[in-house]
Amino acid sequence: MVATKAPPRDTLTVTDNRTGKQITIPIIHNSIQATAFKALKAVPRDGDREEDDYANGIRVYDPAFMNTAAISSKITYIDGDKGFLMHRGYPIEQLAEKSNFLETAYLLIYGELPSLQQKKVWEFEVMHHTFLAEDLMKIIGNMRYDSHPMSIFISAFAAMGAFAPDANPSLQGRNLYLNDKLTMNKNIIRIIGKAATVAAASMRVRMNRPFIAPRSDMTYTENMLYMMDAISGAEGYRPDKRLAKALDILFILHADHEMNCSTATMAHVGSSLVDPYSAIAAAAAALYGPLHGGANEAVIRMIERIGTVDKIPQFLEDVKSKKELLFGFGHRVYRNTDPRSKIIREVAETVFDAVGREPLIDVAIALRDAALKDEFFISRKLFPNVDYWSGLIYKAMGFPLDFFPILFAVPRVAGWLAHWKQSLEEGNGKIWRPRQLYVGEPRRDYLLLEERSEKEVVDPKRGVTVLPHFLSKRRMSKL
Ligand SMILES: CC(C)(COP(=O)(O)OP(=O)(O)OC[C@H]1O[C@@H](n2cnc3c(N)ncnc32)[C@H](O)[C@@H]1OP(=O)(O)O)[C@@H](O)C(=O)NCCC(=O)NCCS
Known about the structure:
Elements: E1 11-16, E2 21-26, E3 76-79, E4 84-87, E5 90-91, H1 92-98, H2 101-110, H3 116-127, H4 134-141, H5 149-160, H6 169-172, H7 176-179, H8 181-207, H9 220-229, H10 241-254, H11 261-270, H12 276-288, H13 295-306, H14 312-320, H15 339-355, H16 361-373, H17 375-379, H18 386-396, H19 404-426, H20 473-476
Antiparallel strand pairs: 1-2, 3-4, 4-5
Helix pairs in contact: 1-10, 2-10, 2-19, 3-8, 5-8, 5-12, 8-9, 8-19, 9-10, 10-15, 10-19, 11-12, 11-19, 12-19, 13-18, 15-18
The chain binds coenzyme A.
């Protein structure tokens, strides 16, 4: 008998049963290279689809990235089963207790806690890059009075790029950020500094009040509250320190969360080497959606709709029959309580001490307790996430509901920038370009108009083929 040598332990051996071909792939960091599967090519049989591209090897199909690591990163680690989160090795609980938002932002972006001198300079710099160009203020001021603040935030960052031609690789050369660390740092500082000002401006527009110039002698969150709430610069208003501190902790908790939808967007868009302002606008757009940064707003709307504790059982029945979603529960990575939600629950009490108890909290607590006892949530490992409580704090602090995603976006700017910088410096320099499985029509020849059938949607009244949408009767009468 010939002894077959076992493959090395840290490898994966795969046999393609179509051809008998075997490949052995190294397992590194408990992962395998998806490109290794390109070696498994096959010849299509009769009836196989040409579009399945047999000649280029097996594709790895992973819609919604359920099990695909798109980057390797040194920034943030989440143990979803244990409910543990750390940034650059530091547990989130320690950062929330001992750090502040700007220091955590520095840690995320530059990899280490700053020294005393570095911290001073960093905070000074960020707080001295808080002004927006006058013309940008005019753009923001021209938005509709009832615009969603996230629309303003996204638009302001997209427009901000136009005010920073020196930051634009399309104008300055594609390797701008590889060759010039000063430009990279300058724009990181600018973007963090201006994010709070844009946020405050988005609120002032809606109140139809003039913008208030930022104050560089305040902390990041104090200044943001000041720009939102001061009646005028001359008034000498200083926000409540307890609220500024609570917001600062919330900002630490929201600063980064590895490859979430908006951070993945930042990395994806950034991989084209577009300027960071445009990439931030794209990331903010991703965060705007109700399944991501819009969830804290959705939680409050949901709890308001439930209204009273006695309506909870019926609501949970509707969730179980998939008529409703329990916003603020569930997470792609956490299969345990989100550690941030525990910290936020404690911050909530500090805020209630300052501004009064939020009446919806009792319904929220009862809803959480009922869900955590229910088999539907237990079996699916659905626990409260960060958004479950944050909205209640923001509501207690008097922020309008549609402003909540802004309070997520401003601190997340730090995480977006950390990933953007890491991708540029340590990524493989390739543009992100996922593959797809084409399952549509096979190749066919163009049909002339007279050869096409009218089988689609025919409006019975007018007899014309229409797309189902709201048609203007006046316009359609001309057809
Ligand atoms: C966050 C979220 C998008 C993660 O989604 P995901 O990882 O794709 O999880 P899935 O949608 O595959 O959920 C798995 C199962 O749990 C159910 N589920 C997940 N979250 C749920 C929720 N909040 N309410 C009710 N059911 C939920 C799904 O319907 C699915 O049930 P099924 O097995 O019967 O089909 C999802 O949990 C969600 O929509 N939560 C509410 C929105 C929210 O709070 N977002 C903020 C995240 S920080």
